[in-house]
Write a structure and sequence with these properties.
By secondary structure, the protein is mainly alpha-helical. Helices cover 61% and strands 7% of the residues. It has helices spanning 7-21, 25-38, 44-61, 65-79, 91-108, 113-124, and strands at residues 85-86, 89-90, 129-131, 134-136. A two-stranded antiparallel sheet has the order 1-2.
Length: 152
Amino acid sequence: MPLEPSPTDDAQLHTGIQQFNQGDYYACHDTLEAIWMAAEIPEKPFFQGILQLAVALYHLGNHNWHGTAILLGEGLRRLEPFEPKYRGVDVTPLLDCASAWLEAVQQLGVEQVAKLAEALQQSQLGHPTTLATISLPQWRIHYDAPADQPTD
């Protein structure tokens, strides 16, 4: 891994996380994909994991149950080695959130994908979300921006 991330990567990561936290998952994917493509091999799974979570949520918004389930699982798998924190990202709470949503997606199944998509919208608004007695956490990446990056 590089000893020090480039300022460009830091700025792009910050932008991607802001896009994720605002529910702009497609833009987040595009932003993080650029970092992922240029990253050194050991860091690639970190960026790919976050962008896979973003794409999973984009799929959920489009009622694509299969894409949601697959990419939540892939994102979880790729991010686990970076716990508890990496590049300023609190990875553990992100994985906890992704695990809870993946469990809900699997339990509720394709028949309830529209309800899951509605729960995602409520989560983006910061509302507590419960679906079929399953309490779902709000999607938010907790991130310590470098000192030279503006905060949300």
